[in-house]
TrEMBL record:
Gene it is expressed from: fni
Broad EC category: isomerase
Protein known as: Isopentenyl-diphosphate delta-isomerase
Cofactor(s) needed for function: NADPH; FMN; Mg(2+)
FMN-dependent dehydrogenase domain: residues covered: 168-322
GO cellular component: cytoplasm
Pfam families with a match to the protein in the record: FMN_dh (PF01070)
Gene3D superfamilies, alphabetized: Aldolase class I (3.20.20.70)
Keyword vocabulary terms for this entry: Cytoplasm, Flavoprotein, FMN, Isomerase, Isoprene biosynthesis, Magnesium, Metal-binding, NADP
Provenance organism: Neobacillus rhizophilus
Length: 341
């Protein structure tokens, strides 16, 4: 099977599987405040994270690597939606264009449709410094994502089997490119130890991409003759991963993995994330209902976030990060055993 066919399989199976969320979000509760003392017009959703300006706390996370016409048209429509609402957007893995430069148009279209927006380049941890420079230049990216997908590769029959040297390669990219580097998981979560390692080599942002949403082990298992069921249940649930990751200071944290409503987004930020990435939920709406429906859903999410922030009396994302929470159930036990409060 070609890389292109495999990538289209991923899109098809991600949509067919349906979007899910981690039940660990139900372990998180806000404490109602009857006197928030603010109004909706006091709420500001924009912020600056290092050198990165974000007009809103949600962004379109990486999808659709592989090149080809489908990558082109999905990147084009996502970029149109992103530019309409001023959302940041990551393109999918650009490795196909690094290997075959005739494919670069399938990513360049995102910059063409959104000339002034925040665009994020994307490569895997096998990438070298020159690949990273090329990916950034290709879309005039404002930041670069490097994805870590060990469990996906191990579940794929044709996947990588050797993950050594990734941290060294990432370090050389961090030191050699001009834009902030975001290292991201793809749905298995990042532990505190992983985030500490990333911080130690100068990574500016960790997107802890937790378990509960798009499940690449499940997707790859559907493509295998004999499945590896233990990887389907693998990983750190999204809210737990955000709490783990944000226990490391001086590195910004993005949360992602299974976000599809305003309440979970606000919970993710209150647990310590600076911004929330959404992939599968947006892709499904785009493919099934089109670009206008996607823009409507993004607007709805921003409205829900604003309403909940008003109820909590949080005027900004940084205030939201400090509202009190009650954590119960398995999430409480996990964080207690890990000494995270
Ligand atoms: C992805 N994701 C992804 N991530 C990445 O860094 N590079 C990539 O090329 C892709 N490709 C890709 C294709 C498809 C079809 C999907 C649905 C997702 C992973 C994505 O960015 C995200 O980390 C996970 O999907 C978890 O978030 P959601 O989908 O639960 O919101």
């Amino acid at each position: 099977m070609s890389r292109l066919e495999r990538k289209w399989d991923h899109i098809r199976l991600a949509i067919e599987n349906g979007q899910t969320r981690s039940s660990a979000f139900d372990d998180i509760k806000f404490i109602h405040q009857s006197l928030p003392n603010i109004g909706i017009s006091d709420v500001r959703l924009n912020q600056t994270i290092g050198e990165l300006y974000l007009s809103s706390p949600i962004f379109i996370n990486a999808m659709t690597g592989g090149g080809g016409e489908k990558t082109y048209s999905i990147n084009k429509e996502l970029a149109i939606a992103a530019s309409e609402l001023g959302l940041a957007m990551a393109v999918g893995s650009q490795m196909s264009a690094v290997k075959d430069r005739t494919q670069s148009y399938t990513y360049e279209v995102a910059r063409k449709e959104n000339p002034n927006g925040v665009l994020i380049a994307n490569l895997g941890s096998e990438a070298k410094l020159d690949d990273a420079k090329y990916a950034i230049e290709m879309i005039e990216a404002n930041a670069l994502q490097i994805h870590l997908n060990v469990i996906q590769e191990l579940t794929m029959p044709e996947g990588d089997r050797d993950f050594s040297g990734a941290l060294k390669r990432i370090e050389s990219i961090v030191n050699g490119v001009e834009v902030p580097v975001i290292v991201k998981e793809v749905g298995f979560g990042m532990s505190r130890e992983t985030v500490q390692m990333l911080f130690s080599i100068g990574v500016q942002i960790a997107d802890c991409g937790g378990a509960g949403g798009t499940n690449f082990a499940e997707i790859e298992n559907k493509r295998r003759e004999k499945s590896l069921p233990f990887f389907t249940d693998w990983g750190i649930p999204t809210p737990v991963s955000i709490a783990e990751a944000s226990s490391i200071s001086n590195i910004s944290i993005f949360g992602s993995g299974g976000f599809m409503n305003g309440l979970d987004i606000v919970k993710g930020i209150a647990l310590g994330a600076d911004a929330i990435g959404i992939a599968g939920h947006f892709l499904r709406i785009l493919v099934e209902k089109g670009t206008e429906a996607l823009v409507d859903e993004m607007q709805e999410l921003l409205m829900e976030i604003t309403l909940i922030m008003t109820a909590l009396g949080a005027k900004s994302i940084s205030e939201l990060k400090h509202v009190p929470l009650i954590i119960s159930g398995e999430t409480y036990h996990w964080l207690t055993q890990r000494g995270i409060d």
